[in-house]
Amino acid sequence: MNIRQILRINKIIFYIPIGIIIIVFREHLINYLSLIVGIPMLVFSSESLIYEIIIKNYRNEYNRLGEETIKIILSILIIFAFNNDVELIAITWGIIAILQALKELSKSIHELTSNRKLVYLLVLAQSLIQIGLAILLITDPHEHVNFHLVILGVEMEIESLRIFIDFIITKKKQENLKLKEE
What we know:
With 182 residues, the chain is mainly alpha-helical.
């Protein structure tokens, strides 16, 4: 089992209960906003950085190592330096969300202009929506922080579900290949 598979299994195991807890108890978790926002952002960014290193993307001129490092630094600031200041956390969270959305937007535009999978049109739309929601979080933190906690919880659930479905599809493909070989 490689590192990527271990990270994916961890997401399925941990993200489902954490996502549910965040959604259900978001009103009470505002007092722990530094941890509730900072830790998942740190995990997401660290996973991305590790993945960039594993696939040796640093060899490419346009790699994402610096961007992922910035997101890690901002996440650490949220956890250790912002003392649960809702405005500072929300603004930083919004910046991290914009950076992530721009990464997906850039990939979508590349895929669409290369006449690849049309599904990237959905990713493009999702990225634009994420940027809009991040701007709302930055411009009016107190009004939108509860909503963004729900989004964070739902995002964790969707990510777990996506990984699980991908696992099932991959397993079925492997089984079909075995049947064809026999």
